[in-house]
Amino acid sequence: RYRNKFQFGIDVVREIKRVCGEDFPVIYRVDLTQALQESYGEEVFNRRFRGQERIIEEGLEFCRALAKAGVDAFDVDKGCYDNWFWPHPPAYFTALPYVEEMAGRLKEFFRQQQIDVPVIAVGKLGNPDQAEEVLEKGWADFFMLGRPLLADPYWPQKVRENRVSEITHCIGDQEGCIQSFILGGHPCCTVNPYTGFEDTKRLEKAAVSKKVAIIGAGPGGCEAAKTAWARGHQVTLFEKTDQIGGQLATGST
């Protein structure tokens, strides 16, 4: 039965619908292609993976079969466990590394086949303008955020209230999130010290407001100033150069 590569996924969807009811929503995460040959080159692809992978055309047909089985929406990415850098684009990837290629391709396929099932775009969509562009261009019906919400759980609220400049952005270094999962720990975040510690690390207002001077406006100094201000202190941040950011600013040029 399972010589058909599509069958296991189809059976899972049908069983969920049978047990939970046809109105129980099922969103299916699918890599339209495993991108193994693209990732490793032909020699490794043939030797390690025996020249076998799901290509985009197969992925499209798989989604058609899943839609017929009852899937209510598709969350579309690229790659698999053998090339994690595709499903979880790291810092050195450009924005929207495969949204048009994956979600956009599936959306167009569904239009042609007259399949009325929503498509959800993923993959480095933490910039609100770029995320909105995905919807405007018709590449997807929705977009989904993962790591950006670890960096700033108030991302949606800040966008809704036009406070985009206040968003703490995911930098894609994979250290707090992916690396923590690999090591068996709970999620945390390089740019948000409260991720995973929301119940234990809480800023409380200081009993007495003090005048606080912080010397050096590198990342640590800026975070210290922000924290002191949030606790109700009167903060002055000093920096000897003409810009803030310290070595982080230098390294980003």
Summarize the structure.
By secondary structure, the chain is an alpha/beta fold. It has helices at 7-20, 36-48, 56-69, 99-113, 128-136, 147-151, 155-160, 178-182, 219-230, 246-251, and strands at residues 27-31, 73-77, 119-121, 142-143, 211-215, 234-238.
Keywords:
6 strands, 4-stranded parallel beta sheet, two-stranded parallel sheet, TIM Barrel, 10 helices, alpha/beta
Shape: elongated
- The name CATH uses for the topology of the largest domain is TIM Barrel
Helix content: 25-40%
Q: Return the structural class.
A: alpha/beta
Element order, helices and strands?
Answer: HEHHEHEHEHHHEHEH
User: Which percent range describes the beta-strand content?
Assistant: 5-15%
The biggest beta sheet is recorded as:
4 strands, parallel
Walk me through this protein's architecture.
It is a single chain. The chain has helices at 7-20, 36-48, 56-69, 99-113, 128-136, 147-151, 155-160, 178-182, 219-230, 246-251, and strands at 27-31, 73-77, 119-121, 142-143, 211-215, 234-238. The chain folds into 2 domains: 7-144, TIM Barrel (Alpha-Beta Barrel); 203-253, no CATH class. The longest helix has 15 residues, at 99-113. With 253 residues, it is of the alpha/beta class. Helix 3 (56-69) packs across helix 4 (99-113). It has 10 helices and 6 strands, in the order αβααβαβαβαααβαβα.
Give the secondary structure arrangement, pairings included:
Layout: H1 7-20, E1 27-31, H2 36-48, H3 56-69, E2 73-77, H4 99-113, E3 119-121, H5 128-136, E4 142-143, H6 147-151, H7 155-160, H8 178-182, E5 211-215, H9 219-230, E6 234-238, H10 246-251
Helix pairs in contact: 3-4
